[in-house]
Amino acid sequence: MSSSDKISTIPSLLRNVVETIHPPETTFLVHKRNADWENISFKTTLDHADAVSAFFLEKGISKGDRMGLMIENGPDYIYYDQGIQQINAVNVSIYPTLSEHEVEYIINDSGMRAILVGNPFLFKKILKIAGNCKQLEYIIPAFPDHSRIPVPDDLMVEVISFEDLLLTGKAKTAQFQEEITGIRRAISPSDTSSLVYTSGTTGTPKGVMLSHYNSVENVKVCLTQMKVIEKDDVFLSFLPLSHVFERMATYHVCCTAGCTMAFAQSLEMLAKNMTEVKPTVMNCVPRLLERIHDKALKSGTADGGVKAKIFLWAMETGKKYRQRADEGKSLGFLLATKQKIAEKLVFSKIKERTGGRIKFLISGGAALPKNVGEFFGNLGIKVCEGFGLTETSPVMTFSEANRQVYGTVGRVIPGIEVAIQNIETKEIINIQTYDTFDENFVCPEGEIIVRGHCVMQGYFNKPAETAEAIDRDNWFHTGDIGRFYRGYLQITDRLKNIIVNSYGKNIYPSPVENIYLKSLRIEQIFLVGDKREYLTAIVIPNRESMQEKFKLEDSFFEIKETFITDPEIITWINEDIRTFSKELAKFERIKNFKVKRTPFSMDEGEITPTMKIKRKVVEKKYAESINEMYSASAEAD
Known about the structure:
Elements: H1 10-21, E1 27-33, E2 36-41, H2 42-58, E3 66-70, H3 75-85, E4 90-93, H4 100-110, E5 114-117, H5 120-129, E6 138-141, E7 158-159, H6 162-186, E8 192-198, E9 206-211, H7 212-225, E10 234-237, H8 244-257, E11 260-263, H9 270-277, E12 281-284, H10 286-301, H11 305-326, H12 333-352, E13 360-363, H13 370-379, E14 382-388, E15 395-398, E16 411-412, E17 416-421, E18 428-432, E19 446-452, E20 458-459, H14 463-469, E21 476-485, E22 488-494, E23 499-500, E24 506-507, H15 509-516, E25 522-528, E26 535-541, H16 543-550, E27 563-564, H17 567-581, E28 590-596, H18 615-621, H19 623-636
Parallel strand pairs: 1-11, 3-4, 3-5, 5-6, 6-7, 10-11, 12-13, 13-14, 26-28
Antiparallel strand pairs: 1-2, 8-9, 9-20, 14-15, 15-16, 17-18, 17-19, 19-21, 21-22, 23-24, 25-26, 27-28
GO molecular function: ATP binding; long-chain fatty acid-CoA ligase activity
Protein name: Long-chain acyl-CoA synthetase
Keywords: ATP-binding, Nucleotide-binding
C-alpha cells in the first residue's frame, strides 16, 4: 500500500490507487447482475463519479451541501458517494430500515438537497414524506421502472432516475472536468465529509460530523496496524454502508489499499455468496459469528456416534494447538500432526462454507463473546476485533494481526489517547497510546474516554450536545465501561446499561447476557433488575432449535400473544438457564424469565439500526410483564 502524502481526502484515495497501485482497468467492484457476477474497474468507477459530479455542479450543488443516500450496498452507492465527495458535498447516509418519521427528521435536520433511493419500497416511503421536506430538491430512484410508481401531482421535488442522471452527467463531464478537478484538489482535510445520524438507545437522532481528516487518518493508521491486508485481497461487503464501521473497514480500506470490494446480494444470500466470491477478508458483527458457531456445533454433534466424537476431538485438538501457538510454545510433532488431521476431517469443511480463502474476519459493532472468538481460533481462522463509535470515525482500538487476546478489542491505534476515567470521582485512572503499549499492562475499569484525530467535529447544529460529549480538555466521553487487560482494551458494558440492584451491587448486563447466549436454545436475552432485589430476563428462543424440538409450525410465531406460556418450552429454556447460571455469581443469576415469541424489532422501536436493544423502551413497553415476574417470584418465596 502506498503511504503517499497526497492521501488526505476521501476522493484522493481512489486517485492514488490508479496512480500508484493498480492500472485503471483493474477490477475494483464486483456485484451480481441477474445470474452473473460483474466486474467493474477503477476507471469505470471514477468515470461514473465524474458524471455524478458534473450533473450536480450544473444543478448548483456546492461545498457543504448535504446529499442523501438511502440505498442497499452496491456500485451505485460508490458512484454517488465518490461523485458528491469530490465536489465537496457531504454524504448523509440513512438506514433503509428507519421509519418514515425518522427519515423525515434526518432529511429536514440535515437540510438535505437530494437523495438516492435504492428500491420501490424506499421510493414510496420518500414520496410520502417529501412534501414535508422543504429543502429537498431531487429524488433519485436507482432501480428500473420507477415511473410505474405514481408521484403526487403536487410534489415540488424533481424525480430523476439514477440511470438518467448518469447519462446526463456523462454528456456534460468534459464541460465540467476542469472544475471537478479544481474542487477536488482544493478540498481541505478539515472539510466535513459525512454526516452520520446516530440515535443510540435513547433520544433524538444526532448528526455526527466527520471530516475528511477523521476518515482518512482513521483508515491509514488502522492499515499500519493490519499489515496483512494486501492489494489483491477480496472483501465481501454485507453490513450496511450507512453504518460508519462498514464504510471505513471495507469501503475506505479497499479505496486505500487497492483491494477488490464485492457486494453480497442480501443477508439471506450471504452464505451462498461467500462460496461464489471466495473472499479473503470480511467485516461482520458478533451475532453472525455466533450463528456460524452455533450451526457448526449443532451440525458436528447432532448425529452423535463417531461423527460427533471426531468433531469434539478436532475442536479439542484445535484448542490445544491455538493455546500453545498463542503462548509461543513449541507445537511438537504429535500435536502438529493431530492438527493437520483435524484440519482435513473437520476444519476444512467449516471453512468451505466461507469460500475457503478467508485470511481473517474483522468483528465490530459489539463485543464478541470470548468463547466464540476462541472457537474460530481453534479452527485456525483469526477474528480481529476493533472498538469505536460513530463519533470516533469509528476505530479507537484494533487487534494486531500477530497477537490475539480473546475477550478484548485490541491495541490503541497510532495518534490518539485512550483513557480510563473513574465513574464517580472523574479522576483519570490511566492514559494509553500506541507508543506506551505494554503487553502485560492491566488497570481498573471505568469510563472509556478518547482524544485525538478520530474524534468527530461535533454534532450537527447541536452545540450543547457537543459540549456535553467533548469536555474542555477535548476528551470525548464514549459512555462505555472498560479497562486495559494485557495491553488491549476490554469492554465491560455501557455506562447507561449498568444495573444497580436494591443491595447496591453493580451488574454489567453484557457479560452476564453473553454467558446465557452460549446456549444454543437462546437467540437474544435482555436482563432486568435495576433497583430490584434480583435479576429477571426476557428471553428470545432460537427459533430453529425450538421448531425442531417441539415440531412447531411457522404459524406458532404469528400468534398475537407476546410471550410463550407453554410449560414444556419454558422448562426446555430453563434447563440451559440453570446450567449456565453456575458460571455466574449468585447476584448475577436470573431468578425468573419470560419467553418472548418473536425477536426484538426495529419496526417496533425496540432496537437501534446497529442492533442494540433500547433498554428504556423495552422496560417501559413490557413493564406489566416485568412486574409479573417479580410478583410471581415473590409468591414462590
